[in-house]
């Protein structure tokens, strides 16, 4: 079953075209890794999927379960102001902000679910800690827990491992894979190709348009995949 | 102390001032965290200009001040979100222009206008007829705030995520601006247009020195705001000081104390 179907998409930023003729689809249970060089339109695509920016052309069809308010989103480099008074639990609970029942106060069920997300991501002991005091890896896990509270079927992650050390990155990938195996569909933008492609089952390679869309295995067999994974070879070939 | 409450004007000032202080602290928590601290200051100057215009045209002050401040709150917030650098200058320019316009209007109209009371507040500013209106508006502000609390927090903490979740962030920013406008118009009568922004900023900043969670910050901000107001009001009565200035001074001293306690607490935790 298709959760997302993107057809002939075109996007622009400040009157400059960043993406055009992009088509792909995401099925339930997929783990799609979106790759490409800087400025290739990856983050713009994520924003378009979330409905945050208008489309210049094309369509994005979303299944009912991934309409606005039902997608878990982890943004690229979200810095928490150092003195912002918010606990980890409050941040995670805010993932339910768009759900019914959160209009005035969060329901008991939502509170239980937030605690369970904290436990799932090994953050229970930090529940009452100030969010700004967490380390980089803990902060990403907290934001992932918040995204899980918002998500019904789909997690959209924009560079989730940016700035994390290799060990924490590896842990986060394992966590994402575990979530994916439990049925969560994941769309992830990543620069860390060698790490990310070990976990993703599909790849979308962008360079203003979709240069490749297919399985990770096929991608790694293409010259494009091999070159992108080893930039040194690209230079040598040139 | 009880003798003071036998005066109707003091009782009205106490009850209305306490209600305004509570509301200002709640709204101020979000304004300071969203870096909109100067919004209250700018709006209070607009309020002064509007009150001067009302005096010159012999109109009911609130009927002129409330719409003028509401419109400016909405416009300034839009500007602050769109173009932050110029918005800072826009608030400063609007503040100065509104003050100047108010003074010129009063001067040209030749009306009697208690400038001191409007700029620095007066304990006598809220009459018996105004008190029910003030309390009703405060109740409305508090209820709206509580009803929107989870989403106001979400929009204050991470606007991009809130938008991704489908939250209409513009709607909640507008609600915040409107609540702020209400608090400013009501509060400037007691604290004065030059001092009202202190009621929006000091209590939340004081609370943030002592708390970790957002909810605790909002609650403590309201509690310390009430304490600062009561201390300031009684100090003004006992020491024969202007009420607005005494309340703001109490806020400033209270903030320093909270900051000190917060620093000691942090030091103790580290050691």
Molecular structure report:
The complex is a heterodimer of chains A (238) and B (271). Chain A has 238 residues and is α/β, with parallel strands linked by helices. Chain A folds into two domains: 1-70 and 152-238, 3-Layer(aba) Sandwich (Rossmann fold); 80-150, no CATH class. Chain A contains nine helices and nine strands. Chain A has helices at 42-50, 88-93, 108-120, 136-150, 166-181, 193-196, 216-221, 223-229, 231-237, and strands at residues 2-13, 16-27, 31-35, 57-62, 71-74, 154-158, 185-189, 202-206, 210-215. In chain A, the strands form two sheets. In chain A, strands 5-6-7-3-8-9 form a six-stranded mixed β-sheet, with helices on both faces. In chain A, strands 2-1-4 form a three-stranded antiparallel β-sheet, with helices on one face. In chain A, a hairpin with a 3-residue loop joins β8 and β9. Chain A starts with a strand and ends with a helix. In chain B, α3 packs parallel to α5 (84-109) and α10 (196-208) packs parallel to α12 (243-270). Chain B is globular, with a radius of gyration of 19 Å. Chain B is mostly helical. Chain B has a single domain (2-194), classed as ABC transporter involved in vitamin B12 uptake, BtuC. The mean pLDDT of chain B is 87. Chain B has twelve helices and no strands. Classes of the chains: A alpha/beta (238), B mainly alpha (271). The A-B interface holds A 50-52, 67-69, 71, 73, 75, 78, 81, 83-87, 89-91, 93-98, 102-106, 128-130, 146, 150, 156 and B 33, 146-147, 149-151, 153-154, 157-158, 160-167, 207-208, 211-217.
Number of helices of chain A: 9
Mean pLDDT of chain A: 87
Oligomer: heterodimer
CATH fold field value of chain B: ABC transporter involved in vitamin B12 uptake, BtuC
Number of helices of chain B: 12
